[in-house]
User: Fold this.
Amino acid sequence: MMTDYLNEEYCEFSNDASASSFGWNFQSNAGIFLFLKYIHNALDIKIESKLQDIEITLVDGSKIFAQAKSAQDYTVAKDKKEKFKDAIVSLSRNPQNNNQLIYISNIPDTFKSANNYFDNSIVSYSSCLSNIKKEIDNTFQSTISSIEKKIKKERIQERKNKLIKIKKNVERFDKSSLFISTINPYFGDEENRYIKISDTVISFLVDCIKLNRDDAISIKQRLLEHWQLRLEYNSTVSDKSDTKKITKADFAWPIAAFLIDNDLSEISDCLSFTPDKSIFNDVNRIMGHPTSIYHERFEFSNRVLQEFEQFKKEIYGKGITQVEKEFIKQRSNQFIEEFRVVSDENVTEYLAKAFLFRIINNNRNMQKISAGVGVRI
Assistant:
């Protein structure tokens, strides 16, 4: 509003929203970083929930509430603790009993006594060294003092009451529930910005999912981009929506999809028609689209695999050598409705059979993912 500037001696207007975009980008990547760190005990994640920037629900019902703060160029920040102070105020609104409250940023030198102490880790206040604890305590006290000054200056009672409530929240803050994390480096273009996020994804795939490193590296970029888009979109979804929660299963199932190449020629002998080039191109385009991996989510894949196991029992001893293809020929009609994304019946048949073949041949990877993240399929 114009009235916001009436009392300003100098106003500089700018349409540069890069700082805001950088902040949203950091928030989504911080969500990926934290969810992967807590994946064994996590149930679901929300970005921009009604309670906090990042909200993760754990299996015991407790919560992780994280405030994500970032700076495009933290080297020019006048007071690097200001973002931490803002986070204290925001986190103090959240229930602390049995929950974890995390301040996550890309600013490595917020605390002078820390010396990169929080880089790419999640460190509890309780485990901090004495000088770091003291600096954090002083920052809390400084935050309270700043609020007290605002209370004294405020003339509107409603605003004063709000400030008094904020001050009480900060004073009651149980620092034993406080955790601090810094993603560093995180600046500039993608080459620098996503170094540690990419490292975290690789470590997760190798250490948690037990993929070999070559397979992990081969899917890392596509997987990271998929998660970034998913979490950025999640930040725009209302917290009242049933689709706001991203479950651990929904988060994990794309891993299996990215591990399988689209070799459509393998199932050409399962088709009821001879595909021409245009059909082949249509199917290849649809399967290559990011949304196509929807068909390999755990729930649907589990249904396919259960039916496949039953089919193997039924044909046992009949001398069928290509069991997967025989299953596709005989049972694909049970799943055809899942793939009616176009009106062309031939394209629909090709899609259904190609996806069924992928799911069956990807069973081993799905078992790894299920065991690695604790999802039952």
